[in-house]
Request: fold
Amino acid sequence: MARLGVAALAGEYHSVAARAAAARADALGLPFLCSSAVLDALTEQPTKWVARLAPAQSHGWQIYADFLLSTGHSRIAVAAESSVYWASGARICGTTSLHAAAPS
Reply:
């Protein structure tokens, strides 16, 4: 990309794709702005080349967990794929006062 004269990248298709694009942009020293990717891992390791506009996925999950607790709900079921995309949400549910149970 840099050899083609690209000055910066913006946007992505999906958080997991953005993670791969961010790693490549960082390796090339090419600025990359993620407009909607929420994956926590996208910016876990700070770099001057990668930035995002959307809040991290764990932030949204924490707000949702706090809301559930504030409305009197303390037991939830989490049905999620075992992947990096869902890991932060499952982690938040497991580290709050919510009692998360995986469906069997």
